Structures are given as C-alpha cells and as structure tokens.
Amino acid sequence: MASIVYCLQRNESGLEFERDLIDTDTAGYLVDMSLVFVERCSVSVAAASRPAFQRAMRRILLGDCFITTELWSFGNSISDVVSTFELLLNRDIQVICLAYGKEDLCAAQNYGFLHALRLANDLEHKARQDRGREASQAKKDDGIVQGRPLSLSHDQRQRALESLAMGSTVADVARTFETSRQTIMRLRDALRDADSLRQIGATS
After folding, report:
1. Is the separation of the CB atoms in 85 and 79 below 8 Å?
2. Is 52 within 8 Å of 39 (Cβ atoms)?
3. Helix (H, G, I), strand (E, B) or coil at 177
4. Intra-chain end-to-end CA distance of the chain, in Å
5. Which domains does the chain have, with CATH numbers?
6. Helix (H/G/I), strand (E/B), else coil: 1
7. Helix, strand or coil for residue 178?
8. What is the structure's pLDDT at 145?
9. Which of 71, 119, 170, 194 is buried deepest, with most CB atoms within 10 A?
10. Ramachandran category for residue 201: left, alpha or beta (phi over 0 → left; psi -120 to 50 → alpha)
11. 51-105, pLDDT tens digit by residue?
12. Contact of 139 with 130, CB cutoff 8 Å
C-alpha cells in the first residue's frame, strides 16, 4: 500500500508546502517524495481543474492511502469535496485529512463524516435556491425588469412591425435593425397574440 501525499500551496512561498510535509511526517506517515504531489493554486479552483490533484488520481491504486492536511484539498466547495470523497470511496482508497485526525474518512465506521458533508451540501444547495428566489421576487416587487435587456427600443419595435405589415420578410427586418431573426419573430408573434385576444374580447 502506497501513501500518496497531496499538498495545496496557496501562496508563492514554499513554507506552506514544507509545513504540510512536516505535519504528515510528524503524524507518523512515511513521506516518499516520489509520491508527493504539490498543487500551486487558489482554493477557489475546483478539484477537476487542479493538475497535481489529477496526476495524483491517476497514480493512486486500489487500497492506497491519500493523505492531505486540510479539507480544502478535496475541492473548492462542499459539493466538490463530496464528489472527491465519493470518487475515492468508489476506488477503495483510504483517506486521511490530518485537520480531522488520523482516521480513514472513507472507512465504514466513519460514514458519519461523509454523511454530514452530504447534509451540509444539501443545506447549501437549498439555501442558494431560496436566496435566488427571494432576490428575484424582491426585484419584481421593486418593478425591476429581469432577464436580458430588450435589443430594440420602443420606436424600433414599432418601425419593425410596420415593415412586417408592409410585406418585408423577417430576415430583411432583422438585418435592417441589426438584431436576430428570433427577436423579430417574437415581436411578430406577440403582436398576433395581442390581436387574437382583442378579437376574442370583441366577440364575447
């Protein structure tokens, strides 16, 4: 069984990387420099975009041990960390995070750790959804128009409709006003819908 040591260095100095190796050695793990992978990037980078982490994943074998010092080594968010743990769990890799202790966090007896991460991830997801809905509703209450801004002004929309009524094609009108055909088609369809509603109202 090999021990893969992964270090995430967040600054230009080498002291952080060296301190991680010292902590790993002090914890009683053999530090084989040929099995040490050092990442130099921000914590904000996802695990899938970390070159050294991906090299470590290609090197690690069934039954090996993955050792790191901090939880942020596994990803840039709770969701990313959960995904990394599930990847290692499926490959039957022992996982040691020294910030948590020396226990294998993927072992059956430590299932509570991963379960707690999943619950926290679900909480984060639900809170993010609710914040989005609340922000959207607040904008509506304040009369703020949401979505993409209109590509045509009111005057341009009127002129585009007049051009269509005079027989111009959708493509010609779109070219004239330097907009997409879809924009002109939506404008035309909206007018048709409004006319249909007025006709229904007049006959009812």
Report:
1. no
2. yes
3. coil
4. 82
5. 3-120 (3.40.50.1390), 154-203 (1.10.10)
6. coil
7. coil
8. 53
9. 170
10. alpha
11. 999 999 999 999 999 999 999 999 999 999 999 999 999 999 999 999 999 999 9
12. no
Q: Map residue 190 onto helix, strand or coil.
A: helix
Q: What angle do CA 111, 117, 123 make, to 5 degrees?
A: 135
Kindly tell me the number of DSSP H helices and DSSP E strands found in the chain: 7, 4
Q: What is the pLDDT of residues 10-29, one digit of tens each?
A: 876 667 788 899 999 999 99
Q: Please report the pLDDT score of residue 190 as a whole number.
A: 79
What is the band of 134 on the pLDDT scale with cuts at 50, 70, 90? Answer: confident
Strand pairing partners for 137?
none
Please indicate, yes or no, whether the overall pTM of this predicted structure exceeds 0.70: no
- Write down the pLDDT at residue 195: 59
- String of DSSP letters for 135-163: HHHHHHHTT---SSPPSS-HHHHHHHHHH
